[in-house]
Specification:
Strand order of the largest sheet: 29-30-32-31-33-34-35-36
Shape: globular
Number of strands: 36
Number of helices: 13
Strand content: 35-45%
Helix content: 10-25%
Amino acid sequence: MTKFELNDFRKLRTLSDVRWSPDGKTIAVVVKSCNEQDGYDQTVWVRPEGGSFYPLTSYGREASYLWDDERTLMFLSVRDEEDRKKVEEGQELTGVYRISLDGGEAVKAFTLPLAVTRLEKIETGLYLVTARCDAGVPDYYKMNETQRREVAEQRHRDREFHVLDEAPFWSNGTPGFTSKMRTRLFVYEEASGKLTPCSSALFQVEAAVIVGRKIVYSGCEYSRRLRLQKDVWCYDLDCGQQTALFHNERFGNRMQLVATDGQRILFCAAEGKRWGQNEHPDFYELNPQTQTLTLLKEADLSYSVSKEKEGALWIIGHGRSSDNLFRFDADNQLRCMTDWDGDITSFDVDQGRLLLTGKRKEGYDEVWQIDLISGQRECLSDFNEETLKDLDIGACEALTITSHQREIDGWVIRPRDFDPQKTYPAILTIHGGPKGTYHPTLSVDMQIWSSAGYFVFFCNPVGSDGRGNAFAEIRGRHGTEDYEDIMNFTDEVLKRYPQIDPQRLGVTGISYGGYMTNWIIGHTDRFKAASSQCSVVNWISMYGVSDISMEFVPDQMGGSIFDQTQTYWERSPLHSACNVVTPTLFIQPLADFRCPLSDGLQMATALMDRGIETRIVCFDGDHHGLNSYGKPSHRERSYKETLSWMDAHLKSEN
């Protein structure tokens, strides 16, 4: 077995959007892999009944697809030379292609004058189109070629000028400023080539479902500040009219979306009065005639990715140590349908059979089939098996402690070639959020550290996800009980694993994990090295610049910046930077609009001012998800920077 090297992540492939064909005989899935151009290829692979997966597409840009019929897939791409040239000139367009399972090249079905992100089939020849549009040019989709070229030329002339009159100013993961940019819905009729908008130009669509001959969508219309409250609208395919179904002045949690079980219009939301914006959404039925909501089920469950299948709404629920699939039925009961032991990224259901993509324990993404009656599971793919079979993957050993009269779940990974007679350095890593969670599955950075000779330990302190609203409640108390839970867990790890040298401890984390890293080094000197990544340093400045500033920050701080100014400052790691003695590395993508560069630089400046050894590594073009989704060379450099920093300060005797 060989050690997990810095660049071994390049060999791993991630899977998403797994789907049965309409007849249930073929499986399709999107496979993402690193390419030689320092980017990623996304291709559609298929598996015929009784066969093996093979790539159906090969261009590398097929991230979004649908089944048009039992033997044909459609996907979005810009691959024609003429189309690519127009896009490079600044025009908005997307090609839609068909490809047959029976062989042959993909054939362009039509071109849409939009930056399309998703295509969904309503019926034969009729499609729901989701696109990213500029509300400043609301009729772009109706323009002729000359007019579109003029728009592109004007944008090119204005490329060094930006007018911002809306908040948020930007969105993490989206290049540039986002003023007047909206996600908008259209209906496309292939036979006539008619493209009809379903939502208004200034309406930001958050979710949409097809219920019979109606398109029901949730989101909000705004022109100055994005509203937290999401309304529900309906577009009737028969009469072509848009109608408001529900104007929201009641619900204040962050996750509000429309869904369906195939018959009913469901609205998933919570008031947020008790648990704030992170409160888990309940299930309501929306009556389109009376425009009223009826509570169907209070569900203290963190979930995502809803999908209507077989007369029910299916969701991925996030638990203490794994994800599971849940089904919300017509009797308003929420049932757990799986006994999974890992992460789930996508799923589909067909006649008692469940497909899912995800990873378990020391494995990585694969496609699994589960019989919903017997519970029997079968792995259908080997996308990562060949890569992993020769790698020495460290197992996550469970360790649950008691802190503040509650259980805190955590795990420890031993160093490669562990010898109980030796002592080792160790790295504490902290998840993002705060309402994030760790599961005991393969994590690239943790495996790199373990293979390099480190103990790695991590836990889910109070404020983490997967255990209900009460456990996740940490608003206004960051750096208090969460800090104590993490320190208590550290103490117990040192007791259980005497091979860890307490004088050679490092700490790291990303986002909220970066916040806690900054907080920890300002409140204890027990860690001899720190790597703070994409971190929060100053709640006051984050309020002014983050893409979630006016929603997330006041909610987390328990009130507005004007009413809770002292809390904003006292809960900021910068407040305690005068106490830091720990050498600290700061990793910061320049296009991180969630926790911008300005925050990391404030902490680094404070440490440099005090003479503390400090290093700042910035990455052009990458965003808040650097270590998971960033450019491969950037990810490798980020992993290397943290490992080298830890080596320099925790292995100095070597």
